[in-house]
Write a structure and sequence with these properties.
The complex is a heterodimer. Chain A is an alpha+beta fold. In chain A, about 40% of the residues lie in helices and about 15% in strands. Chain A has 17 helices and 12 strands. The two termini of chain A are about 45 Å apart. A 6-stranded mixed sheet of chain B has the order 1-2-6-3-5-4, sandwiched between helices. In chain B, strands 7-11-8-10-9 form a 5-stranded mixed sheet, with helices on both faces. Chain B has 2 domains: about 30-240, Cytochrome Bc1 Complex, Chain A, domain 1; about 260-440, Cytochrome Bc1 Complex, Chain A, domain 1 (2-Layer Sandwich), CATH 3.30.830. By secondary structure, chain B is an alpha+beta fold. Helix content of chain B is about 40%, strand content about 15%. In chain B, helix 2 packs across helix 5 (about 145-160). The chains are: A alpha+beta, B alpha+beta. Chains A and B meet through helix 1, helix 2, strand 4, strand 5 and helix 4 of A and helix 3, strand 5, helix 5, helix 12 and helix 14 of B.
């Protein structure tokens, strides 16, 4: 790493520097030197995530990441590290996800030297103190036992959807793990996990801002002092085939019903077909955007909830973020529809409305008009995915994960919007979208009544608090009896306290 | 100014793995141009070349604070929804399709003191944006049916937020801490008022006529655009807007004369929450008593404070502790929040908070610590400005407080003058038993 050569840049330079270690052609450093940007961002990607949690120790990767940024180091307690960091107006944090763990730091260039020594110390010389371990493990348990189970039905619905689809695979638990997994994790487990995965052959570091070669070396030299080890081979993920419509009803007291549904798709970004499918998906349900067709039907015209969206890629924390955050990539994705909480008495109706719109898209495909409008929308809209240097750095890491060559995902996305034809979009719909085999999750009271209504295809009449147009009332006549075939044996009722155990 | 954040930020603070969080404050580093029209409309233009993007923020200096008529809580937020329903020239679906064709990131939010409409798009669309945005502020039209349908979406938003114990706690806290002032209700409003919204069509028209006026709206444009062209378009499109702003008749909150407390039960499982608020002043950059509360909050309750080390790290009796002013237009309590792990420790935690306050009534904070804080805040401010969008997005709350962004520099100039003695004086002034409000929330 001593031989890094950085070209002096007046403008932004992109330099991929191969390591001189034993990892062959594996690039370990992504540099985006920008002399005009005084804010330095550093992202260290370790190739480990919740998919690498050992069986029975679910939550271990999350807890290890927490210990590395919210625990002390060998030399300093966490309180002492916090005090040292405090005057620098800088921060670092861990972003664990399913397939990667990112440590990110941000500082002003004036404070870089002091900051980077703390950042390095935190990652490369962890303290693994019992008191930090107890505190962080309790925080993770508290998140599952109270926050997720009780205070965010939307996140709960999504967590159950993902866990159900990937049940029995290394993707089949949330980042924080399970109650029993967390309880069985010891400090020794954390130490071993760290030494196995946080090694010098298993990272990529990405850096942007106005910094010198010597400053870059301060980061890379520290990382090269990590334990020797090997690059992690991610585990195989084979989701069980979904047969028919499988419903999970999480029974809990709630004044509204959250609904999430989906099934695995065999497509990831980088593939031209993915971008074709993204046009159809954006039209059907662009995240938190009124252009979403589902939003128009369920919220705008009928006022049943706050929003309705669809996804062909993992979008964590959708309730908080308007745009997707980088650095939560997955090799295996699902198609997902998210219906935000609807009044309990309209849950069956809203579910039918969503499925009906989706099936109309399957049957009819996109039209020339919707295709043209959506691709021109996306061409500009995706620029909003990475408005800052920091976000662009995050996307560069994801490009490496997905093996997307320069100019990278966002530029590829933009370029392909003028090249992908309507026929390609409709082919992608035919190949990847279907409504016969999927998992549906409801978070709702009166589970037994919903089960009966679904199995018997009971009519789901709707009463509005305001007059509606004839067009909507005519459409409703179809929706309220829209047939969706669900067998009683495919419906599971689960109490909320039985989840994530 | 460090806690110039929506109250709800606390939800986020408890969820992330951040080592430290950002706050605002500092010296504004960009060149600013201003436009003032005869009708009272003001625009703040911040050219930052290079990105090809512009961020367009329309700041209405009306939030749930202005909902002074009984039964009308939640209306400012509801009205934010109605603003997407279109005009005669650009009906809702046409407005949507224009925004969609630009590939713009467009949205809005409401808090107690303001409503903000924002949009970020390629700079080719500068005139189109000024045209469609000025048009909806001047000529909004919606039918009673549309109005009633939207009320369903607002109720959905209420239900979505209601699953959080923090929402339940804030609602009860504000209801307890205020008797007369409109801060008695949260931005989303009381549930009974939300249920009644479909019946308030006529009121909504009056709300629009009184508050959506040029004297009450300030525009911020930041990013890559031609300032002269922008000035000409602003003149062209916003000048015909008729003035006519009517001030809300907000009752001032009487001085609180005795401590208040309440216990709330949350319908679900949660660790117990504790909120303590001491009545203090409104944001005022020229009030050193108020400004001194920012360094006090950091030193007494921040991540390097003794109480944080003791309760969070060593004894591990709480999951976090956080405190600060709310930087509001009218007086709002200085708030201290924490989440206690075991209910039996609740009294102990309260006593530790009291002890901390009492300590700083006599103990002068270290001068060098105060200097570190002053420098740190400037860097934190600069660190936030990493895109034209982030420049525009941090300004609305400053604008709503004072009508301009000069307050940023004024704040720092005055903050630099704060002394350890001033902090002691402020703590003695505001932290009195009779101004205390305490809420404990427990799960079932």
């Amino acid at each position: 790493m001593k031989t890094i050569n950085i070209l002096v840049a007046l403008f932004i330079l992109l330099v991929h520097i191969p390591t001189n270690g034993n990892s062959m052609s594996n690039d370990k450093v992504i540099l985006k030197i920008n002399k005009e940007n005084p804010i330095i961002s550093i992202k260290v990607w370790f190739k480990v995530g919740s998919q690498d949690d050992p069986k029975g120790k679910e939550g271990l990767s999350y807890l290890t990441a927490s210990m590395l940024t919210q625990g002390g180091t060998a030399k300093n307690t966490f309180a002492s590290m916090t005090e040292k960091l405090f005057p620098l107006a800088s921060y670092y944090s861990a972003r664990p996800s399913v397939e990667m763990t990112i440590f990110e730091g941000k500082t002003h260039k004036d404070n870089f030297d002091e900051f980077v020594s703390l950042f390095n110390e935190q990652i490369t010389e962890p303290g693994f103190r019992e008191e930090d371990f107890t505190r962080l493990k309790n925080d993770a348990l508290n998140y599952i036992e109270t926050t997720l189970r009780y205070s965010s039905d939307e996140e709960l619905g999504k967590a159950v959807l993902y866990n159900t689809i990937f049940n029995g695979t290394p993707y089949g638990h949330i980042l924080q793990g399970t109650i029993s997994g967390l309880k069985s994790i010891t400090l020794e487990d954390v130490k071993n996990f760290y030494s196995t995965y946080f090694n010098r052959e298993n990272y990529v570091v990405a850096i942007t801002g106005d910094l010198s070669q010597a400053q870059v070396s301060k980061i890379t030299d520290a990382l090269e002092k990590l334990n020797p080890g090997k690059e992690n081979t991610p585990p195989a993920i084979k989701a069980e085939k979904i047969e028919g419509i499988n419903v999970v009803i999480i029974e809990k007291q709630a004044n509204a019903t959250a609904i999430s549904m989906g099934y695995p798709i065999d497509l990831v970004r980088g593939n031209r077909e993915w971008y074709a499918l993204s046009i159809a998906n954006s039209w059907l349900g662009e995240h938190r955007n009124s252009s979403s067709h589902l939003y128009q039907i369920i919220r705008e015209e009928r006022g049943l909830n706050y929003g309705d969206y669809s996804y062909i890629e993992n979008f964590p924390n959708g309730g908080r973020f308007q745009m997707p955050n980088p650095n939560a990539p997955k090799r295996h994705q699902i198609f997902e529809i998210w219906i935000r909480p609807v009044p309990n008495e309209t849950k069956h109706f809203a579910f039918r409305a969503a499925i009906r719109e989706f099936e109309k898209l399957l049957k009819n495909g996109m039209t020339d008009d919707t295709y043209s409008a959506t691709r021109s929308f996306l061409r500009n809209y995706v620029l909003n995915y990475a408005p800052t240097e920091d976000a662009r750095l995050g996307y560069m890491i994801d490009d490496k994960f997905y093996n997307i060559p320069a100019p990278g995902h966002i530029e590829t996305f933009r370029n392909l919007m003028s090249k992908i034809s309507l026929a390609e979009v409709n082919d992608a719909i035919k190949k990847n979208f279907q409504s016969e085999n999927m998992v549906i999750v409801f978070i709702t009271p009166d589970a037994e009544a919903l089960k009966n209504a679904l199995v018997n295809n009971e009519s789901s009449p709707i009463v509005y608090s305001s007059p509606k147009s004839d067009f909507i009332l005519e459409e409703d006549k179809e929706i309220i009896n829209y047939p969706i075939k669900i067998k009683a044996e495919n419906i599971k009722i689960v109490k909320v306290d039985e989840l994530f155990n | 100014m460090k806690y110039l954040k929506n109250l709800l930020i606390i939800f986020i603070a408890t969820m992330t793995l951040s080592q430290a969080t950002f706050a605002t404050g500092g010296v504004f580093p960009y060149k600013v141009e201003r436009v003032t029209l005869k009708n009272g409309f003001k625009a703040i233009l911040i050219p930052i070349s290079g990105s090809g993007l512009i961020s367009y923020y329309s700041v209405v200096r009306t939030g749930s604070r202005d909902e002074w008529e009984p039964g009308k809580s939640g209306f400012a937020h509801f009205f934010e929804h109605m603003m997407f329903r279109g005009t005669e020239r650009f009906p809702g679906n046409v407005y949507d399709s224009i925004v969609t064709s630009m590939g713009a990131d467009a949205n809005a939010y409401t808090s107690s003191d303001l409503t903000v409409y924002h949009l970020t798009a390629a700079n080719d669309y500068l005139e189109t944006i000024i045209d469609i945005e000025s048009d909806r502020f001047r000529n909004l039209r919606y039918t009673k049916e549309q109005f009633q349908t939207e009320s369903g979406a607002v109720y959905g938003e209420y239900r979505k937020g209601r699953t959080s114990p923090w929402s339940v706690a804030f609602e009860a806290f504000q209801d307890m801490a205020f008797d007369k002032h409109t801060y008695k209700h949260t931005t989303i409003g009381f549930e009974k008022d939300i249920i009644d919204m479909p019946n308030q069509y006529d009121y909504s028209l009056s709300f629009y006529k009184r508050y959506y006026r040029p004297e009450n709206v300030i525009l911020v444009i930041s990013g890559d655009f031609d300032v002269d062209k922008a000035k000409a378009f602003i003149e062209k499109y916003y000048s015909p807007w008729e003035p006519g702003y009517v001030k809300p008749e907000i009752d001032p909150e009487p001085v609180q004369t005795a401590p208040r407390s309440t216990k709330v039960t949350y319908d679900g499982k949660t660790l117990p929450l504790l909120m303590i608020g001491y009545k203090c002043d409104a944001f005022d950059v020229n009030n050193p008593d108020y400004l001194a509360l920012d360094p006090f909050a950091e030193v007494a309750f921040g991540r390097t404070s003794d109480i944080y080390k003791k309760l969070v790290l060593e004894e591990q009796k709480v999951t976090f502790i956080q405190a600060g002013t709310q930087s509001s237009r009218d007086p709002f309590p200085f708030m201290i929040y924490t989440q206690v792990k075991k209910i039996e420790d609740m009294e102990y935690v309260q006593a530790e908070i009291e002890k901390t306050i009492e300590r700083f009534k006599t103990e002068l904070i270290d001068k060098s610590m105060l200097e570190i804080l002053k420098k740190r805040d400037k860097y934190q401010f600069l660190m936030q400005l990493d895109s034209p969008e982030s420049v525009a997005s941090i300004l609305p709350q400053y604008i709503t407080l004072t009508g301009d962004i000069k307050v940023i520099d004024e704040y720092f100039a005055n903050y630099d003058k704060i002394t350890p003695e001033q902090i002691v004086k402020s703590v003695n002034k505001y932290f009195v038993e009779s101004g205390k409000n305490l809420l404990i929330l427990t799960g079932n």
